[in-house]
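Review form for a predicted model. The reviewer records the input and the model, then writes brief findings.
Reviewer: anonymous (R2)
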Amino acid sequence: MKMKRNPITNAVYKALMTGFVASSALGTVALAQDNDEDQGVEEQGKITVTGSRIKRSDVEGALPVTVITREQIELSGESTAADFLRNMTFNSAGSLRPASGSSAQAEASLNLRGIGASRTLVLIDGRRMAKAPGTGSTQDLNTIPMGAVERIEVLSDGASAVYGSDAIGGVVNIITRDDYEGAEIMIGGEEVSIPENGGDSEMGSILFGAAGDRSNITVGMSWNDREIIFARDLPWSAGTGASLFGNNFSLVDPDTGELTFSFLPVNEDACNFEGTGFFTAGGGLCRYDFTTVSADEASISNRSLFTRSSYEINDDWELYADASYAKTESFGRYAPVPEGRYLNNPLNPIFESITPTSPNNPTNPNSPLYNPDLGLAPQPVDWWHRFDAVGPRDSTVGTSLTDVVLGTLGTIGNAEVEFGIRNTNNVRTDTGRNYLYKPAALRLIESGEYQLWDPFSPQSQAALNEMRITIFRESKYDQSEIFGNVAFDIFDMANGPASMVIGAEYREEKYLDQYDPLSEAGLIGGSAGNSAGGNRDVTSLFAEVLFPVLDNLELNLAGRYDDYSDFGSEFSPKASLRWQPLDTLTVRASYGQGFRAPTLDILTSKPAFSADSVRDAATCTVQIGDPDEPCQINALVVANQNLTAETSDQFAVGLAYEPVDWFNMSVDYYDIEIEDRIRSFSSQDLVNYPDRAPVGLGCERDSQGLITQCVRGFANQGVYQVSGLDFNFRFNYDLLGGSISHNLQVSHMLDQKVSLIDGTLSDDLVKTPGLPEQRAQLMTQYAYGDFSIGYNINMIGDQNGDDDWAPVGTWVTHDVQLNYFAPWDGKFTIGVRNAGEKFPPIDQGFQDARDYDFNLYNGYGRVTYARYTQTF
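Model under review:
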């Protein structure tokens, strides 16, 4: 007796196997119905769906999997796979995207459930993407070619037992196009309304496929270019930069050498440089408006080439080869170097106070800076200077990812066998221009050859080449792996055979993040970070068994053993049930345990300097005159060799229901609890709770109680709890001679709590700044003859305020798309995202270094796009 397949499954099966979806929307659904319930498994075939390695005829399995088709991706209007993935409702709190001035400038990541991008696993055709060299812990979505994506499968509960240790938050499996016959060309572009200059993009793809009696090949290329966006072109940030690192000085106690933090302005002439960011503010202080120079969003350019091919050796065996090459280039610009003794790198504090006899000392009567009205006796001073004459800090980042998989599929008796090898090379280079060589700057300032009062003078220009320097960083994250598995029926049961898959994987990871020698030595001004690197190999054994217990009940048991060469070993079990009490109703539940080993970047990094912002009454009172406002302190970021793995318990239960032909729905509950959480202890954590600091971490203070530096990093601490609900409602019906579909996808977070540094469990973090309670999307498409119209409503929920951030209201945008299908197999698409030109929530919610939550929202305004696709 064969397991029943409900109507939802029949429809999804056809969508997955044929690629045809008529007016579908987010979720495991297609509109076509198949009422022939007697059609056998042998006729329909079996497929593998994300979350299980056992092939089955029923797509609506025991785990919550959302299938997103290529048509749905195109309907969204997004131009890159990275942007589409980041805007899914499952990406609860947003995630990293290309930002100028960031050490991860060219990367984009995914953060399912808001519990950390390193706990989200992204797969390509069922195999894990290599980690991004720039972060060492997350995967870069920018390397995914949009033209290669056939569909996306999102497993919204953890799958450590199936795919590996870093799948605690969920799994996203990118299925690429294969078995394609013909050719397809797409070209397009989009224009943003904010800003007026920059942010526009161009994109395109070419796809070709051919098949013979025993072989097939699919080859394609994809490209996308987005322009840089400067802060000065954004209405909310232009003219808002007011850094104290302009041209100011502070007095130094000649006996102790400690700063008094009395900010005094250099004379007016030393701040009046036309056409620059220098300006005079209250109290005569000389500040610097960094928004006149810096970019808000880096440019990004992607090029990729991909191919999939297979060859049938005979009726039992097939060879396959998948290969791809992706190249990304990015350009970012940051304001010129701010520097002074106060920002001394604790790794190499080479800067000293300016002596009383230096021409650059405003207390020196012989200095052009001398102001007798201040009544200051000659004494050492510290300077707060912006090296605008050196030029803006420019960063050019390039990444190249090569991924090759060779494998074979076949049968031995009644067993299906697969084994293969894979090699991934991921290389990143970062060239930074117009940085400061600090030893030269110190000498030139003390001697007066570089004139703080007139940095643009010919004399100062002669000194610039001595202090201006280009820095370099090269990063690699390579993976080599061997894999194999065998699937077979172990015994017959009353309702069908019990099926099993067993397999093994061996993976070597090589990570290197190498800074140039001068940066490593702490001799570069305007830069932070330090080298890291290490190797590990992971040996994995896994097994999965499917038992058809009853005609309408399946039990799935899975387990995975991972052994890390540098960490140790762990076992991850999982059990799941699928019950179909009615042909139209499927109920599912699962429970599993998992773990996540510490990533190589935080285990192997060398000590690195960071300028951190903290609230500390003693330090900030002296530094800026206000105990309640944040001020900047020096920090040293260190690795922790004593980190242990974090473990997790995960539970999910849900149902899928189709009461009538034109409506179906699903609802799923998830609950994840992480123990021994790997967390970063910030400088503020260490300031607030010095007695709770892990061994080796803490803040150091001088005789006045002022912070001289904080040593911070990662450690294991406490638990992380998160739970929520996912809803999916789908309607499909005929209207006015055409067909219409609606799909409402809602991710609702019930609670999220973490252990605090004081040892207590936090209050519920849901709706705190940066963590909305809901993300939702309503997609509607109406098809009539040669035309189709799409209309999407996107919603990010409101967030409450706190002591640091103002509350933010619900953010809703509207998208519209029109398609015309020409009789010559051409397709014209025009559309608008955010048709109402809604601004991001400025000065509301979590802001970090931007005026809004940069990872959760975007500042493009109205995005108008046009594309043309020709199929041959």
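Findings: Residues 7-233+298-333+397-434+471-598+644-677+718-871 form a domain with the Maltoporin; Chain A fold (CATH 2.40.170.20).
Further findings: The first strand starts at residue 65 and ends at 69.
Recommendation: see findings above.
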